[in-house]
Design brief:
The complex is a heterodimer of chains A (about 120) and B (about 110). With about 120 residues, chain A is mainly beta. Helix content of chain A is about 0%, strand content about 50%. Classes of the chains: A mainly beta (about 120), B mainly beta (about 110).
């Protein structure tokens, strides 16, 4: 199993970014997926989750209405659209595979998003 | 939202000793509880799921237990590679929530 995130970078407050997570080594279309973030020096915070076919999505209150999770099963890729970014969104964003909508059994190495003027 | 509270924040132990980490849920999560290990600069790694089942490749010195809303991760015979931060996480209800972490240090 391999999960490779990309798309992070420096963005100004109010700006947007789109993160991607390229998956391989497992049947992507059969796995729910999530994004989890970690602010510098802080703990883990679940951000958003999506069902196998994308029909169900869930968000943390802290990002609801600003972030959008999606997936393209034909490309084995997970996405997270980040809009109206705030300084407190600065974090490493991890892509994580979920086992039967339960625990996170595999994680990517993360991509850093920095929101600063 | 279910709040997960871990204790202690930092646990100082010696090589070969036993480490006992605690996690409390603010309401019942049944056994929908996982533990993760995170070494510096690395992604988290699944250690325990279902409160007491070791993940693939996890050594037998790691064990998990549950009693109501109290969960324990025990590491018997600490080895150098076990020094890390450990997080508990509930997957019983949305939003999924993590504890704040316990750092196991020498």
């Amino acid at each position: 199993v391999d999960l490779l995130e990309s798309g992070g970078g420096l963005v100004q407050p109010g700006g947007s970014l789109r993160l991607s997570c390229a998956a391989s080594g497992f049947t992507f279309s059969s796995s729910a997926m999530s994004w989890v973030r970690q602010a510098p020096g802080k703990g883990l915070e679940w951000v958003s989750g999506i069902s196998e076919r994308g029909g169900s999505t869930y968000y943390a209150d802290s990002v609801k209405g600003r972030f959008t999770i999606s997936r393209d099963n034909s490309k084995s890729t997970l996405y997270l659209q980040l809009d109206s970014l705030r300084a407190e969104d600065t974090a490493v964003y991890f892509c994580a595979k979920m086992y039967n909508w339960n625990e996170f059994d595999f994680w990517g190495q993360g991509t850093l998003v920095t929101v600063s003027s | 939202e279910i709040v997960m509270t871990q204790s202690p924040a930092t646990l100082s132990v010696s090589l070969g000793e036993r480490a006992t980490l605690s996690c409390r849920a603010s309401q019942s999560v049944s056994t929908n509880l996982a533990w993760y290990q995170q070494r510096p600069g690395q992604a988290p790694r699944l250690v325990i799921y279902g409160a007491s089942t070791r993940a693939t490749g996890i050594p037998a010195r790691f064990s998990g237990s549950a009693s109501g809303t109290e969960f324990t991760l025990t590491i018997s015979g600490l080895q150098s590679e076990d020094f890390a931060v450990y997080y508990c996480q509930q997957y019983s209800n949305w939003p999924l929530t993590f504890g704040q972490g316990t750092k196991v240090e020498v």
